[in-house]
Specification:
This protein is mostly helical. The chain has 6 helices and no strands. The chain has helices at about 5-20, 25-40, 45-60, 65-85, 90-100, 110-115. Helix 1 crosses helix 4 (about 65-85), helix 2 (about 25-40) crosses helix 3 and helix 2 packs across helix 5. The longest helix has 19 residues, at about 5-20. The relative contact order is 0.12. The model is unreliable at about 120-130 (pLDDT under 50).
């Protein structure tokens, strides 16, 4: 496959996947917020894009001739560059808001003990609630 065809395919695949899954920047941002909640540390959209790029690179050993891995990898790498060059990228407020929305409600006395003002435990900043 020639360079021009690969780049054309990357652009087409981006458009097709966008139609299927929605805006890629929004998707990577949402995935970063979810990964942050799961892992308990801040994961950025840049991190997600780089990990997905790494996934595509990791697949090359078993399927070096599969153009999809290269084409997807180009798109993930391009999004990593977009996020890396973005100014003032801050996710902490969004992550905290998402954690508060998704956190299960605890008993009232647990909220009083940790000083929560919104009726929910502060799961993002308080590790004492972990079992």
């Amino acid at each position: 496959m020639e360079y021009e065809n690969i780049m054309h395919s990357a652009n087409e695949m981006f458009a097709d996947r966008g139609a299927q899954y929605g805006d890629m920047k929004a998707t990577l941002t949402r995935q970063a917020k979810i990964a942050t909640l799961i892992l308990g540390r801040v994961i950025t959209p840049y991190d997600v894009a780089m990990v997905m790029h790494a996934v595509k690179l990791g697949r090359l050993e078993g399927s070096r001739n599969k153009a999809d891995n290269y084409i997807d990898g180009i798109n993930y790498f391009a999004f990593a560059a977009t996020f890396a060059t973005a100014e003032n990228e801050t996710l902490e407020d969004d992550i905290v808001a998402m954690a508060r929305r998704l956190a299960p409600r605890k008993q009232e006395n647990a909220n009083v003990q940790n000083g929560s003002t919104d009726g929910r435990p502060d799961l993002v900043h308080d590790d004492s609630n972990r079992e």
